[in-house]
Inverse folding.
């Protein structure tokens, strides 16, 4: 059983019950909906299908919404796409117009005031480059330095410029209200610049009366890299969103930044996700490149909690095959991980308390004795998350009577959460945990597992561990 989670973005290629079923069987753990490209109706329809599959497979499948964030986007273009030829001049407006190859708009009214001459505009993921040569009365005059097609509503990057935009737009607020209505588990916050942006969303969720949704800050610009420690304090996790980040920073620095970000997430005991172009060749081909296989492998070896598929499962020709391939690579990488070193490195930065000490002992025992599973009885999920941080070699079955707790654990490394009734004794904890492990992992006689938890539940503290033989 793999331990690194797979996030699949849902779109036209995958929003069919039969395809979703096969993706669940192949290893999908969390379904992502990109609200920059999805409407509420299609999201609701897909979520209903996923909820049915959860019941069918008795498996928790997390739901993640990806917000728009304060990003700059092109306005509508003629026929949705135009070609900008190298050396040509283009006028760029901050007010909406229908775009052509000689003029188009960007959704920011203060564009003229906030940019300077010779600033570069990066379009189409940085493939098309414009340079500002002058400011006219109501628009920017730019020259095309790198030619190519540009498309309606696509992101525009202007590196090293901080725009005066509220973090939460009216669209984002509407999408977050919808997320609360749909009982979504995770929000991925686009274009976070500082922890204040995260706090804006936290305050809005409090206003809406939601204390369940966890916040994943997407790292997509230099500001977020510089503010990463504060962002992690106020987030439940981070996502290294390599598409937009790779436009904002020199591409050769991207692998190093990815490693640093994932390591910081682990040290903070927060979720760490790697996203974008992991198996992008499989959008059109049934097999990945060797470089892509190495990319996925290294994301797992770096210690990511989860890795994410985007275009591969939204518009790709092989969504199921892509998930199957990712699962195979993950399992291969996890077989090569140095679990003893991971445990010792994690303990060096871990605070010393009862739960941490027991979690360390549980993982150390599981690794040394080659136990088949760790079963953690938890009310809040805190114990299971601590065990996950120590990266055990075996899977973690987390049992809880709290449905919100169960759903909140869907993205953590190695954790497979199960909803159970509240336990009334330690004997009941042990018996139930054994049953759940046998069912989840198809264990056999004489297989050994380790059980940990706290009793009575009112203590809110882990206070025992027990090795059991099936």
């Amino acid at each position: 059983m793999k331990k690194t989670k797979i996030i699949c973005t849902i779109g036209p290629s995958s929003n069919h019950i039969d395809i979703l079923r096969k993706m669940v069987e192949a290893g999908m753990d969390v379904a992502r909906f990109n609200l920059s490209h999805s409407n509420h109706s299609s999201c609701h329809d897909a979520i209903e299908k996923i909820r049915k599959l959860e019941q069918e497979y008795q498996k928790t499948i997390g739901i993640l919404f990806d917000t728009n964030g304060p990003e700059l986007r092109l306005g509508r273009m003629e026929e949705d796409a135009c070609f900008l030829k190298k050396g040509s001049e283009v006028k760029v407006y901050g007010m909406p117009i229908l775009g052509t190859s000689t003029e188009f708009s960007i959704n920011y009214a203060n564009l003229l005031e906030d940019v300077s001459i010779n600033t570069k505009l990066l379009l189409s993921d940085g493939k098309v480059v414009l340079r500002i040569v002058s400011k006219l009365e109501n628009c920017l005059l730019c020259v095309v330095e790198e030619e190519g097609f540009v498309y309606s509503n696509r992101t525009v990057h202007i590196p090293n410029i901080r725009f005066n935009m509220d973090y939460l737009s009216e669209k984002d607020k509407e999408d977050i209200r919808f997320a609360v209505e749909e009982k979504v588990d995770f929000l991925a916050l686009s274009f976070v610049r500082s922890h204040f942006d995260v706090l804006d969303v936290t305050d809005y969720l409090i206003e809406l009366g939601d204390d369940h949704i966890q916040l994943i800050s997407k790292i997509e610009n230099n500001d977020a890299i510089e503010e990463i420690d504060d962002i992690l304090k106020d987030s439940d996790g981070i996502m290294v969103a390599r598409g937009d980040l790779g436009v904002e920073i020199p591409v050769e620095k991207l692998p190093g930044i990815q490693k640093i970000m994932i390591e910081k997430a682990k040290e903070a005991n927060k979720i760490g996700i790697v996203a974008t172009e992991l198996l992008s060749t499989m959008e059109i081909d049934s097999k990945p490149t060797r470089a892509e296989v190495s990319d996925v492998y290294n994301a797992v070896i770096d210690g990511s909690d989860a890795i994410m598929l985007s275009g591969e499962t939204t518009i790709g020709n092989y969504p199921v095959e892509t998930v199957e391939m990712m699962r195979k690579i993950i399992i291969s990488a996890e077989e090569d991980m140095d679990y003893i070193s991971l445990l010792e490195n994690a303990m060096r930065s871990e605070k010393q308390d009862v739960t941490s000490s027991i979690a360390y002992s549980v993982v150390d025992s599981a690794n040394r004795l080659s136990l088949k599973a760790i079963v953690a009885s938890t009310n809040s999920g805190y114990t299971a998350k601590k065990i996950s941080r120590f990266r055990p070699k075996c899977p973690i079955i987390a049992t809880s009577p709290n449905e919100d707790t169960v759903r909140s654990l869907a993205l953590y490394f190695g954790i497979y959460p199960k909803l159970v009734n509240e336990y009334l004794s330690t004997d009941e904890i042990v018996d139930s945990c054994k049953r759940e492990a046998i069912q989840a992992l198809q264990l056999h006689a004489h297989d050994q597992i380790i059980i940990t938890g706290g009793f009575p539940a009112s203590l809110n503290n882990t206070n025992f561990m027990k090795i059991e033989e099936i």
Observations:
- The two ends are 19 Å apart (CA to CA).
- The chain has a mean pLDDT of 92.
- Residues 40-57 form the longest helix (18 residues).
- The CA atoms of residues 345 and 436 lie 30 Å apart.
